[in-house]
Structures are given as C-alpha cells and as structure tokens.
Amino acid sequence: MQVPRHPEEPPPNGTLPRGAPDPRWALILGVSSGTGAAIAEAVARKPGLDIFGVHRGRYPEAALQMEARVRATGRDLLLRQADASTPESAEAGADELLARAGPRSVKLFVHAIAGAALGHFLSDGPDRLHPRRVQRTFDCMAHSFVYWTQALVKRDLLAPDARLLGLQNPLDETQLGNTGLISAAKAALEMYIRYLAVELGPKGHRVNLLKFGTVMTPALHHVYSPEALALLEQRHAAMNPAGRMCTVEEVARFVCVLTGDEAGWFNGATIDFTGGMTLRLLDLVLNP
C-alpha cells in the first residue's frame, strides 16, 4: 500500500507535475563564488531548495565547483551569466526563472552581488569617485535589490512566506579609509529593506538584512597579496572576540536558519552576525 504524502512534501524525484507551483527555489545573485556560492550549497542541502543563480562569469572555476556540489545534493540548478545590477537584467532573469520554475516558486531571494568602487569623494587623483562610479556602486549594491524584487512581484514569483535577504557589513558602525561609497550604498540598501518589509509584510513575505564581518572570498584573494591577507587575518583575530575571522560557511548555515519557520517573525531587521567584530575597536586603538 502506498503511504500518503504530506501535501507540502515534494514528490520523491524532487519535481512537481508540469504547471504546478513548486515553492522550493532559491534565487541567488552573485552565486559563482564566495558567500553567494556557500549559500547556494547550504540551502540546496537544507531546506532542500533548487537554485537559480546569476553571476558575471568572473570566477568560472569556482562556479563549476559550486555547480557540482549543488547537483550532488540532488537539487536542480540553473545558472544565468549576466550583470544582475540593471533593471533590464532583472526583468530578463525573472522571465527565465518564471519559464523554468513557474509562479510562486521562489522561497528565498539572496542579493549577494558586489561591484563597489573604492576611493575618495574629493580626491584629485585616479581614486576620485566620479558619477559613473557612484551610479555603478549604487546599482550593484542597493538599487538592484529593488529591481529584482519588483520583477519577482510583477510575475507572481514569490512563494508564500518567501524570504528576501540583503547582505550588509559593519561599515555602518565605523569608517574605513576609501570605503565611503560602499557605506553609502549599503545605507540605501538598509532603507530599501525596511520599506519593502512594510510593503511585502501583508503578503506574508519577510525582508531582512544580514550583517556579517570580513570573510575570505576569491575577490579578496584577487585584490590582496598573500602577505596582505595574512595581515588581514591577524588583525581580525585580534579584533574578533572569537579570535578568528568568520567563514562563508558559517554565514551560509545561518541563512538556512533564516529560511526556516523559526525565523518567520524577523522582518525589516538588520540582523547582527558579526560575532562582536567592532566591540574592541576603541580598545585596540588606545591599547595596541
């Protein structure tokens, strides 16, 4: 005798009949490497989401490794190579996702794309933050969250009780040299999160911002020399109460928690996952 299946449980082969909504997809921007890749692998395992990922193709080897690990979980995976920061890209990506997954299919949306310009606002040198750099940084790190949310809502792609998540860093608590434009863009993202939480809350969806400290990613290895990376780890070991840096895997596991029913009351929140990273800054300056 066949045992009846719970109505919310997916069939054994992980698919639903053609045309039926399957609220088991994660949309991840910046999926090829670093935090985005770690989140894709984690949520594919638990709670068991299929992955629609967008990336620019800058780290092809890392993308292949991520793809293999996701497929090893038995989940479906669709990758789109594109610049996710524009409204046109959001519309085209949402159309592709709708064709593949159907309406009300996106349980989790994670905005993990970067693309920030470093520099100074009043510099006369090559690090001057001219208008094109300002626009590009805000599109990548703030505006694109709105573009994709609008595209998802327009196509009725958000599953019941969908979770939308932006990523933040501790630069809202302190100032770091040439990162003023990043801080400004992340401040805009935080405001977008709050207002979207109010607009989407009555529909049952939750919109939050996850703040965590520096993690080792291919982007860091691309920017810094091995000596600089070693110094970076040393400084973080002194700064963090845990005596080490956070890892992308730790961030990814917490995203799995935020996807679960237990985190359903978080909304419009900036969730501190920094591990107390900034608690000792003054002490380190005054008592080096």
Characterize the structure shown.
This is SDR family oxidoreductase. It comes from Corallococcus terminator. Belongs to the short-chain dehydrogenases/reductases (SDR) family. One of its GO terms (molecular function) is oxidoreductase activity. Residues 1-21 are annotated as: Disordered. This protein is α/β, with parallel strands linked by helices. It has a single domain (25-286), classed as Rossmann fold, CATH 3.40.50.720. Helices cover 43% and strands 15% of the residues. It is built from nine helices and seven strands. A seven-stranded parallel sheet has the order 3-2-1-4-5-6-7, with helices on both faces. Helix 1 (34-45) crosses helix 8 and helix 3 runs parallel beside helix 4 (131-154). The longest helix has 24 residues, at 131-154. The radius of gyration is 20 Å and the shape is globular. It starts with 24 loop residues before the first strand and ends with a helix.
| Structural Rg | 20 Å
So what's the overall shape? globular
- CATH architecture grouping: 3-Layer(aba) Sandwich
Strand order within the widest beta sheet: 3-2-1-4-5-6-7
Low-confidence segments, given as residue ranges, are 1-19
Counting DSSP E segments of at least 2 residues, the number of strands comes to: 7
The amount of helix comes to 40-55%
> Could you say what the CATH topology is called?
Rossmann fold
Fourth-level CATH superfamily: NAD(P)-binding Rossmann-like Domain
Overall CATH class? Alpha Beta
In N-to-C order, the SSE pattern is EHEHEHEHEHEHHHEH
Tally of individual helices: 9
**End-to-end distance:** 71 Å
**Tell me about the biggest sheet?**
7 strands, parallel
Average of the residue pLDDT scores: 90
Strand content: 5-15%
What count of structural domains? 1
GO molecular function: oxidoreductase activity
Protein name: SDR family oxidoreductase
InterPro entries: NAD(P)-bd_dom_sf, SDR_DHRS6-like, SDR_fam
Organism: Corallococcus terminator
